[in-house]
Design a protein that fits this description.
globular, disordered N terminus, alpha/beta, 5-stranded parallel beta sheet, 12 helices, 275 residues
């Protein structure tokens, strides 16, 4: 961990003493961000907690947020986009774009843009990276050297499984999406998901699967998620996905926070054009 903290020293009560920095926790309705927020509150009693509302998240996320407010001892400020009606699918249809190798426009339009309008210069952003994501955190710090950020889960060497256990030990029911076997509590039907993820979505949430498939059909082949492996540069749509393709349990976790889009070349040196 020395590398990450040498480049981006962790923010502590000692370093903040006498300063006017705001401590801002990015609560995504996931277990990791919840525990990161709780740790930040224990270290800095006065923090701001923010959450971005998206229509495609499971409604149980709002229940989890409410339960966590009681655990935190303070309310969560919810940011909600008006331009796209807080809908990832509305972004896909209006922008005529679902994702690239570097990311998806919903994260940028519905999360980062909202945060940019809300944040203040000098804010210290508390992020929910776990110890398994140490390399991703280091990459984020390298690409955003002027930002003040802290990753308390890495400092405390907590894994994602630790965060789930901490939530359960606090008497809080984990989000429904975790309960039915998903690795995160992001939107139902995230375009960043792999083949196994989407085959699971097809079984658990067929209406969501069909809604995304219809968007792909409307937008055309450029919106398809995976190469067809035919050697002709064609891609396959959700409708063409073999039912046995992929393995959800072995696929990487899907990340979707206020700043995840900034940790990729998707924003890097060029931001998406305004619609």
């Amino acid at each position: 961990m020395e590398k990450a903290y040498h480049q981006h020293p962790s923010i502590t009560s000692q370093t903040l003493r006498g300063n006017d920095m705001r401590i801002v926790c990015q609560f995504s309705c996931g277990a990791a961000s919840a525990v990161a927020t709780k740790l930040a509150i224990s270290e800095h009693p006065q923090v701001e907690i923010i959450n971005a509302f998206l229509k495609e998240e499971h409604p149980d996320n709002r229940r989890f947020l409410s339960d966590c407010e009681g655990w935190f001892g303070q309310p969560v400020t919810t940011l909600r986009d008006d331009k796209y009606n807080a809908s990832a699918y509305e972004v896909f249809r209006r922008e005529k774009f679902i994702k690239s190798q570097s990311g998806a426009p919903c994260s940028f339009r519905l999360k980062k843009k909202m945060l940019d309008a809300w944040k203040q210069p000098g804010d210290v952003m508390v992020m929910g990276y776990t110890i398994e994501e140490k390399d991703r955190y280091e990459t984020f710090c390298e690409r955003n050297p002027t930002l003040k950020v802290d990753a308390p889960l890495i400092r405390h060497e907590l894994e994602k499984s630790d965060c789930l256990a901490i939530i359960e030990n606090a008497g809080i029911e984990i989000p429904y999406m975790y309960k039915i076997g998903y690795h995160n509590a992001n939107c139902i039907g995230c375009p960043k998901g792999g083949k196994g993820y989407w085959n699971k979505i097809k079984i658990d949430f067929p209406e969501t699967f069909n809604a995304m498939a219809e968007i792909q059909e409307d937008l055309g082949e450029g919106s398809y998620f995976w190469p067809a492996l035919t050697g002709d540069n064609k891609r396959i749509s959700l409708r063409e996905l073999p039912p046995t393709a992929g393995n959800h349990n072995s696929e990487p976790d899907i990340t979707c926070s206020f700043y995840c889009v900034m940790a990729s070349d998707f924003v890097g040196n060029q931001e998406l054009p305004e619609a």
